[in-house]
Amino acid sequence: MTRLVVISNRVSIPESGKPQAGGLAVAITGALNEYGGLWFGWGGKVSQSSTSRPTTVQHDNITYATLPLSKEDYDDYYLGFSNEVVWPVFHFNLGAMDFRLNYAKAYQRVNERFASSLSTLLEGGELIWVHDYHLLPLGKALRGQGVSDPIGFFLHIPFPSYDLLRALPGYRELLDDLLHYNLLGFQTDNDLHAFRQAVIETFDAVVFGDTIECNGKQVRTGVYPVGIDVDELAGEAERSCANEQARQLKQDLGERDLIIGADRLDYSKGLVQRFNAFEALLTHFKHRRQRTMFMQIASPSRSAIPEYDELRRQLEEMAGHINGTYADLDWVPVHYLNKTYPREALIGLFRSARVGLVTPLRDGMNLVCKEFVAAQDPDDPGVLVLSELAGAAHELSGALLVNPYDVHAIASAIEQALNMPLDERRERYQQMIGMLRRNSLFEWRRRFMEHLSQQQADAQSSA
Ligand code: GDG
To answer: What sign results for the dihedral spanned by CA atoms 21, 313, 102, 183?
Structure first.
């Protein structure tokens, strides 16, 4: 079988002892477990100086090869260009963009270093799969190292509309970088459409079927919605009912309804609007007081970036304000937990909740909402309230879809969810679980790998 080489900004080596928060890690481990091969990227360490010599470890059939980042690269490539330029623009948040020339230079430099380091580990005849927005230029840099195997790229986050993209200095180069891949994958039709539009407007690209022809190159494109392992999740959720923590929670909740949110602490996840929506529920639907508890898990993320730290403070204040206004001797309405919890605990909470509240302002896909659905008891399922601006909204029509900026619409949807009759809850659950099974994590990687292999076969037959 052809070896698979995966490259992502962060390599998640098993047994590092910490729970993984981040859809990417969960998804990639699955692909590599099946094919075997190499996972290359940053190992998570910040060192004094930068090096191109990777450290490798082997676990089962996967080799993990990692590089450290120097403090400067961490600040400028990772926090800077990736997370203060590309991330906000691609999430339609121009106000949070902080473009600096040294960020752009570091982004290019680290991508070049990744390429030269990785090329020493390649054997030839492999399938190469690059992940996400930190590595847009990697394909072109690998070509510069003489790599001729097919290289695919998958974008986990949204692709912005052309007009937004134009606000990013150097966007033409980034678009051109993407044209050096053989296969480009997006989460939704919207993202693919936005990319096509951008290359048409910028380079007069020509689109025929799945292929884009541009600047003398041909790139195949496709839509591959990331999914979850439904059976694994459902099994874990069922087992969670038996554990001590779940029993304790059930006892603490008593007759109260639990509303659950769980996200990385990120401004794209719509947490401020979500807290306001919960307050609006307590204000406008007074009968929900005493009877409802909102638990928000906000897993710490990128806290060195000012916007993230500011958001953490703002949410602490909002939770304090809501609790200060509404709490009683025997009831605290908001439980705001700024921690990363073990996966089993999280899934147990999903299972216990009546409402899953997932309201990002923009999200490439969003796996939390899919995990929430898969964790439900099929006989007595909870209800998903989902942002129509999450990629997952294209698949989960059984959710109550809301505009994440419309605080009152979210409050009304929560009320509707809490009043929903069992028959309707089951019907909606069936629609969603069926879709999750069809578009599973396995299907995602199978289709991407199949299309990438076709690129290899096409190259061999035309050689
Ligand atoms: C990017 C895109 C796309 C959350 N809190 C804890 C915890 N989590 C886990 C969830 C879920 C994952 O983290 C988050 O995945 P999302 O998909 O919701 O969001 P991003 O991290 O922004 O992921 C996104 C994804 O890539 C995949 O393509 O869907 O749109 O932005 O699995 O369960 N896990 C644990 N403790 C927590 O406290 N263990």
So the answer is: positive
